[in-house]
Model the fold of this input.
Amino acid sequence: MENKKTFGTYICQRRKELGLTQKEFAQRIFVTDSAVSKWERGLAYPDITLLQSICQVLQCSEKELLSSSEDIEGRRAEQLAKKYLCLTRTYCLGQFLLFGAITLGCLLGNLIHQHTLTWFWIVLSSELMVFSLTLLPTFVPEGRRAVASLGSFTACLILLLGVCCLYTNGDWFAVAAVSVLFAFGLVFLPLVLRNLPLPPWLSCRKASLYVGIEFLLLVALFGVCCLYSNGQWFLSATLWTLFGTGIFLLPPLLHQLPLPKHWQAHQAMVYLSVETFLLLVGLAWEGRSGAFPLPMLPIALLFLTLPWGWLLSLRYLPIRRWFRAGTALSWTALWLWLTPFFFDQIFLATGHLVSQPYWFHLPVDFTNWTSGDTLFANVFFLILLGLLLLAIICIAAGLLLRKKRHP
Done:
């Protein structure tokens, strides 16, 4: 009963504050004045379907009506929201007037002094660039503001570069535009990809998409710079960039690329095959004047045998892991021992002289650590011995594990 009285008191108070009689109030919400009298005396509640009409007439919120008290915090928040909207409208109007005044002033000034439009286009494109950062976000939905503002700013910046290039009769626009796109993409492309509505098959491959777009922009930058400088280094730069980035980025990209099922279990083989192919193609292109295939090809193949031996040992040998590790360590020691000899043979076959030929029998002397040749032989022998000891330890560990499993 106490709640009914409080509710009725609040309705009566709000009605009197607005200067309404019970009859006028009842007419506005289409009820009888006796019903309003019962509400104000705490004898009854209004029907729930009348709450919205009562709130509109009494100029209060539903929360205030149901709690029978003024929502001070809510009213303050509503007032602040109205002030913010008013301030935003004033700010936008002021910006439009400012941009309009600058544009009109520069247009008239350019026409009066030069009787044509020249530097006015620079001012206009600059204003558009500022507009994309100050006013455009106010017209875009909240979740898309950053992407829209960034995209508009980039487009206006490229437009400004084009206008400046035309104004100065330059030929540097392509280099500047591609450089801007590459630099902006390098920093902001992850943000853009995260907010773009991509298809499902691309949503899970954003890293691959990012690397692909940036690589294409970098190749485009190489192309325009090569044309600008009348150079012939485009293919060399592209090949070696592809090779270098592939060394670091190809392994994670292979996890995201839609490879055939029978290739999924051989990603290491795919990675090494692609890098080997790129290396050989790059060397062939660099040595097209006569230095390829000798001595570049045999030297490259000689050094490629080391990672290929690791891959075959660690991935494809039909033995357990510890034995694979021991085989890989043994292969590393054997490769280090044999490679200097074959390196010398390659140079001798191409007509080069070798001042100190390498021999399989190392002149090891642990009592002499001052001579250069002996110092190298001692250190090299210790490295080979360490690798062989690690290989023996791995094989022994594999034998112990196999003995425990099959006593």
Notes: Residues 113 and 361 are 89 Å apart (CA to CA). The radius of gyration is 40 Å.
